Amino acid sequence: MAQPATAREQLFALRRQIARIEGRIEIPLEAPPGRPAQACAAAGLEDRQEVGATLLRRGGVAASDLAPLGAPAFDRALGGGVPRLGLTEIHAAAMRDAAATSGFALALVMLMLGDRLANPVLWIATGDFWRETGRPHAPGVAGRYGLVPENLLFAAAPRPVDALWVAEEAAAAGAFAAILVEIGGNPRDLDLTATRRLHRRALLAGQPILLLRAAAQPTPTAAPLRLAVSSAPSTPRRTLSGPLAGSIGPPAFHLAIGKSRTAIPATVTLEWSHGAFQERPPRAAFSGAVAPLPADGTDDAPAFRQIVAFAGARHAAAGVQPPREQYAAGDGARRAG
Amino acid sequence: MQPLIEILEEDPAADRAMLEAIADWCDRYTPLVALDGDDGLFLDITGCAHLFGGEQAMLDDVLARFGQQGFDARGAVASTPGAAWAAARHANGRIVEPGGEAELIAPLPLVALRLEAGVASGLESVGLRVAGALMSAPRAPLARRFGRTVTLRLDQALGLVPEPVSPRLCPPLLSVERRFFDPISLISDIEELTPALARQLQGDLERRGEGARHLELQLFRVDGEVSRIAVLSSQPLRDPRLLGRLFREKLAAVSTSIDPGYGFDLVRLAVLAASPFDATQARLDATEPDKSGDMTLFADRVRARLGVHAIARVRPVASHLPERAATLCAAPAIGVAPSMPDRERPLRLLEQAEAVDVAAAEIPDGPPGRFRWRNVSYQVVGAEGPERIEPEWWRAAGAERPRDYFRVEDDAGRRFWLYREGRYGAPDAAPRWYMQGMFA
Fold first, then answer.
1. Which residues of chain B make contact with A337, given a CB cutoff of 8 A?
2. Among A171, B39, B274, B360, which lies 20 to 30 A Cα-Cα from B305?
3. pTM, whole model, 2 decimals?
4. CB pairs under 8 A between A and B
């Protein structure tokens, strides 16, 4: 029994719409009017045309709204990268791993908006969480991640529900570049409704909200992406005369995808160095080579950032943040020992 | 004996608190309320009486409301505090016309002049039994024999010597109020009322060229209780909408502690502090709207709801000690910040360094091979250090010992910041190990 042509066409259109909603197909998308063109170019789009070019939608999210981590296989599993807006959950197994989640979150924030960090970053936590895991230490944040104290604002809330309220209000105010919310355990207030509100506010404001959860069970939330982060053993510091034996190099993170739009499981070990993530195999398989090995053998290892000699000039002028390339000079590798 | 009398211990502190609560409530008539001894209040109603329909109507209103609250109160209105005091306590309370003070106090006993009992009995022993007798007596011998207080009190009562009444509370710069025939008791009603009151304030603030920095919402309960809700703003504010939002957060935070009881019949919004309001001009060539105002308002709202210390910025301090180097403070940093240390510093710093069990270091001045922190044992696989940080001898009493800091990494890849206080082989005390921070 043949279907009428109009009914078949209607069915096809509906299927296509469902596929578009689910993000199973790549479809051209008109560039939103308000979005600057260089943001599209910075995100590594397939078609780098001039202003007003069509964007490609991958996995239900416009490609310009994804920040690739620089590990090709892992980025593919993520569907292109970590979303630049909306809610992202970052989990740690135990309270003592809170340093790993906050370090990874700060690296992620700098990766997403390091070049155009105009507004401060808001860091919210409950007071007892900070008492247990330690407060963020500004010299450490500035030295390793380049986020100067003028660009950091802290909010200490007495209860988790207050922390969520502050996060929502901050997203509504739209005055922050990114919002970090640290909540330990599984408080009752952090449910599907609360996270959906946060996600919605973050989408409307066009900001990332990173929900850092230590010692929490993965419960259903509205965040499209959940990453499990733990510290990975570091590599030795790299000096001009080779790796320095016995030293502790740049921070390394072990990432596993707990939940994502593509539902592909993947793990990766990333190292945050010189303002970018670099993928590397775990230490056990590490051959001792200085440059990271290609992950899947098809691509060359990413080149190191250019090192510019600006030692000591980093914080000479208070309130003036040098461009990110200059941090390479003062970053870990040169201060060995 | 009267069997129905209930006997209670005297409690002067509670009496005082009650008198102060009553004084608070009297704020509804005038901002200038002063305590008088243990059982009296002075209300400076200069310029206020017409708001209540004249002096007699005001006095009736005050006494009627006190009666409703269960107090037996006497009151009088006079041009001088002394005359009012005498009229209220010894003349059954009435309105003393200006110029009628001498006529009022002449027949009254000497205690009506607020004289001490000893002085009054001394005067009575020489035959001066009423105030009128004092007025006609020669002043110089009186002052010489009984002290200057006698003539001073007399002159104060008659208005010959001014007597200032010092109010309990600082009078507000501006205030607006609304009275209700039917008391309101819902917090939501108060929330809606606040912007309306702030709108009345706006014109006055504009005339003064100022914006409010410290506001107080005073809720007068029918039975005499007064609740005060204060909000602080980090920038001068005038916009009723913004003020309303600040108060909404504060009301949400304190709504459990406010007991509306039978309702509030007077709500007043007072400006306690203001500062010049500079109208900002938007840049003509700005591509993005200025968001700094949004951030200040956000910070003020969070502070109104969660407390003054809820929002903090980093204040770098020129100190080698890590726990002093970056403190969090509510106010934004002013002036040139000292440079950050160029060394590797941890991402998180424990508020208080925690003691760590270290069995033994492999070499006396080296990093520990194993350590135990919060009941968990860690195996150290990599370490950097030491970095010595000396105590600040110019601040402390000298009891502190130098610290040797190590960055250590355990077998799972966690990176910690440990320090050893003191050194091995020192004559005075064994070294102690502490955990101070964590690296990412």
1. 384
2. B274
3. 0.72
4. 194
Tokens, residue B318? 């020129």
Burial of A13 (0-12, 13-18, 19+ CB in 10 A): exposed
Rounded Cα gap, residues B374 and B293, in angstroms: 44
Q: What is the pLDDT of residues B137-160, one digit of tens each?
A: 888 888 888 888 888 988 888 888
Q: Which DSSP string corresponds to A91-148?
A: EESSGGGHHHHHHHHHHHHHHHHSTT--SPEEEEEEHHHHHHH-EE-HHHHHHHH---
**Cα nearest neighbour of A311 on chain B:** B342
CA of B342 to nearest chain A CA: how many angstroms apart?
7
- What sign has the CA pseudo-torsion B168, B169, B171, B176? negative
Of A134, A150, A314, the CB nearest to B349: A134
Beta bridge partners of B410: B380
Using the Cβ of B439 and the Cβ atoms of chain A, whether some distance falls under 8 Å is answered with: yes
- Count other Cβ atoms within 10 Å, centred on residue B124: 15
Q: What's the pLDDT at A325?
A: 47
A32 contact partners, CB below 8 Å, separation of at least 6: none
Extract the tokens encoding A228: 């499990």
- Give DSSP secondary structure letters for A236-282: PPEETTEE-TT---S-EEEEEEEE-SS----EEEEEEETTEEEE---
Length of chain B in residues, anyone?
440
CA B319/CA B204 separation, integer angstroms:
47
Q: Which two tokens stand for residue A215?
A: 């010692």
How many helices and strands (H and E) does chain B possess? 12, 14
The candidate with the shortest Cα–Cα distance to B300, out of A192, A305, A169, is A169
B271 phi, psi to nearest 5 deg? -95, 115
CB contact under 8 A, A135 and B325: no
Interface test with B, best of A135, A166, A230 (most B CBs within 10 A): A135
* Strand ranges inside B20-76, DSSP E: 33-36, 40-43
Domain positions in chain B are 12-158, 174-276, 348-438
Architecture per CATH, domain B174-276, reads as: 2-Layer Sandwich (3.30)
- Whether the CB of A175 is below 8 Å from some CB of chain B: the reply is yes
**Which among B227, B308, B229, B221 has a CA at the least distance from the CA of B265?**
B221
- This model of the complex carries an ipTM of 0.72
Query: Closest approach of chain A CAs to the CA of B205, in angstroms?
Result: 26
- Total residue length of chain A: 337
pLDDT, tens digit, 9 for 90 and up, residues B119-139: 888 888 888 888 888 888 888
A70: Cα separation from own chain's centroid: 11
Spell out which residues of chain A touch residue B347, defining contact as CB-CB under 8 Å.
99, 102-103, 106, 136-137, 140-141, 144
Contact status, residue A251 vs residue A280, Cβ threshold 8 Å? no
Give the integer Cα–Cα distance in Å for A334 and A327. Answer: 11
The answer to whether residues B439 and A140 touch, using CB atoms and an 8 Å cutoff, is yes
- List the alpha helices (DSSP H) in B255-400: 292-306, 322-325
